[in-house]
Amino acid sequence: GGGGPRPPLGGGACGAGGVCPPPLGARPGPAATACGGSPSTPTSPGGAPASALRDDASLFRLVSQTDPFARYTLLPNAEEFAAGRLNGSEAHRSVVRVSFNSVAAGALQGGRLPAGATFPTGSIVFKEIKPGATAATTLYAVMVKDIGSSLVGDGWLWAEYGPSGSVIYSVNSRGGACTSCHRREQGPRNDLVRSFERQQ
To answer: What whole-number distance in Å separates Cα of residue 119 and Cα of residue 197?
Structure first.
């Protein structure tokens, strides 16, 4: 079982009138180990230039307020709460819940990234890490596609936060501790998003 109904691909209302509850501060937990503009500038769904993501605070604000993760679409064709371990990676354990913002979800066809495609700028892949399916979230791992940013590593911004917004892995590190795992297995053919390996 997937642990409950999934929103349809492309989004879904979070509550009455589509208003989502605030995602922050409700379930703090211990920190986990880190994963080891111009008018032509692309914009995020909130309308801010993607290049405005210049630090950890602005990225966390994006996923918690401007384009809040509570509205994201779950990884299609996968368990809602899946084992965090992937072949060659022990970074995010024990259980993860992966979701996509509307930009990233819009790039999928049949729940997958088409062969040879990459995610467009503004795409967000959001992972909640928990010690168990019913436990509180202890870590958020975030990938944001922003090829125009000086902070990218392999085309993505990479960061990890505690649920209250405390920085666990800084976007300033440019994914240095993340990309080696994301380049393994099916990562290269899925624009470094290895979560597709969890699909059934």
So the answer is: 17
Give how far Cα 90 sits from Cα of 31, 128, 131, Å.
16, 15, 13
Closest CA relative to residue 140, chosen from 110, 116, 160: 160
Q: For residue 76, which of 14, 3, 6 has the smallest C-alpha distance?
A: 6
pLDDT, tens digit (0-9, with 9 covering 90-100), for 176-187: 888 888 877 887
Tens of pLDDT, residue by residue over 84-114, are 555 555 565 578 889 999 999 999 999 999 9
Sign of CA dihedral 78, 83, 87, 89: positive
Beta-strand runs (E) in 32-176: 73-74, 82-83, 95-100, 124-130, 139-145, 156-161, 167-169
Sorted by sequence, the CB contacts under 8 Å of residue 139 that are 6+ apart come out as: 29, 31, 32, 92, 128, 129, 160, 161, 162, 163, 168
Q: Are 121 and 148 in contact (CB under 8 A)?
A: yes
Residue 12's identity, in one-letter code, is G
Q: What is the pTM of this model?
A: 0.74
Number of CB atoms found within 10 A of residue 51's CB: 18
Pairing label, strands 95-100, 82-83: antiparallel
Q: Which residues of 122-131 are buried (b: 16+ CB within 10 A; e: fewer)?
A: bbbbbbbbbb
